[in-house]
């Protein structure tokens, strides 16, 4: 049990960014004085304590806690670092030793970053594909747009379900939040995020040490057949190289692409007549440019990395 004095002591030395709010309550029938205390602004996002139950509740974004952003992935070699840092923080704040086996998880998001850069498809290709799919155990589907651009797909068992599976454009989310320093880290990131249900967690236990594990991660990804879904995209459509990739990676200028693509379209529409529109030397040069572009695209497609979650 924690005392009121422990939280009052915190008020004396915490910074302006980190605050303690204490509420006292006198129980009329017994005359007992109880209190609740809330700590906000700490790197542990939210801490609350109730003296009548002795229950200490906290909420933390593990990547934000460890890396200062919620973009980077937490891997198994980071978990022990997280536990150690958490125990140190609670000891410094409240002079208590947190036992990991005493921590019960009431909410857990399982996430994975898929880098689509070399997959042969752009972000819109992937999100449009997911929009057409059915997910096991998730009958409801919601598409999220911003200025008519598809940015995410949410799957739920029911409309009002808290548990959900989401595929979304991480860079678009970061831009909306105005965190410009993190945009480069979020570029080309397709985030897979599962807000787990109590029933899913109960199959392992509600203990943090059982849930922050490779086994639970594997269970969640297998339950929703994520890798099978990703492979299905390649079975349905051949990879391609979006034009923006030609500009970014092959250093084509927009005017170059306009010239080459315009030439290709004229040849398709006018066929043999197209040659009469050009000087012989110009026509030959355009054909060489088209050949060079196709060779570069072909090489990029050969180097396509099929998108998979590595378990």
Written overview of the protein:
With 311 residues, the chain is an alpha+beta fold. It folds into three domains: 1-98, no CATH class; 107-238; 243-302. 42% of the residues lie in helices and 20% in strands. The chain contains 13 helices and nine strands. It has helices at residues 4-13, 62-67, 76-94, 123-131, 170-176, 183-186, 198-202, 208-211, 214-223, 226-236, 243-249, 254-270, 280-302; strands spanning 19-26, 33-40, 46-50, 55-59, 109-115, 140-146, 149-156, 164-169, 189-195. The protein has a five-stranded antiparallel β-sheet. A four-stranded antiparallel β-sheet has the order 1-2-3-4, covered by helices on one side.
Secondary structure elements and pairings:
Blueprint lengths: L3 H10 L5 E8 L6 E8 L5 E5 L4 E5 L2 H6 L8 H19 L14 E7 L7 H9 L8 E7 L2 E8 L7 E6 H7 L6 H4 L2 E7 L2 H5 L5 H4 L2 H10 L2 H11 L6 H7 L4 H17 L9 H23 L9
Antiparallel strand pairs: 1-2, 2-3, 3-4, 5-9, 6-7, 7-8, 8-9
Outline:
With 311 residues, the chain is α+β, with helices and mostly antiparallel strands.
């Amino acid at each position: 049990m924690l005392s009121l004095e422990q939280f009052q002591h915190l008020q004396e030395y915490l910074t302006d960014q980190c605050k303690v709010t204490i509420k006292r309550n006198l129980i009329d029938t017994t005359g007992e004085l109880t209190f609740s205390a809330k700590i906000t602004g700490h790197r542990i996002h939210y801490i609350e304590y109730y003296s009548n139950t002795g229950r200490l509740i906290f909420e933390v974004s593990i990547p934000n806690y460890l890396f200062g952003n919620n973009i980077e992935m937490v891997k198994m070699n980071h978990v022990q670092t997280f536990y150690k840092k958490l125990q140190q923080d609670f000891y410094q704040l409240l002079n208590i030793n947190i036992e990991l086996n005493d921590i019960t998880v009431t909410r857990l998001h399982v996430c994975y970053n898929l880098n689509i850069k070399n997959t042969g498809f752009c972000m819109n290709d992937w999100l449009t594909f997911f929009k057409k799919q059915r997910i096991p155990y998730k009958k409801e589907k919601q598409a999220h747009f911003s200025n008519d651009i598809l940015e995410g797909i949410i799957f739920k068992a029911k409309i009002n379900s808290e548990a959900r599976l989401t595929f979304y454009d991480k860079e678009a989310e970061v831009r909306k939040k105005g965190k410009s320093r993190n945009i480069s880290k979020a570029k080309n990131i397709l985030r897979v995020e599962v807000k787990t249900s109590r029933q899913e967690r109960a199959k392992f236990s509600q203990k943090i040490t059982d849930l922050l594990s490779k086994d639970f991660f594997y269970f969640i990804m297998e339950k929703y057949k994520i890798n099978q879904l990703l492979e299905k995209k390649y079975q349905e459509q051949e990879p391609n190289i979006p034009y923006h990739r030609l500009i970014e990676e092959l250093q084509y200028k927009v005017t170059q692409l306009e010239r080459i693509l315009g030439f290709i379209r004229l040849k398709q529409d006018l066929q043999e007549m197209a040659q009469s529109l050009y000087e012989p030397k110009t026509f030959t040069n355009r054909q060489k440019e088209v050949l060079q572009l196709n060779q570069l695209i072909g090489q990029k497609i050969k180097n396509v990395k099929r998108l998979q979650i590595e378990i």
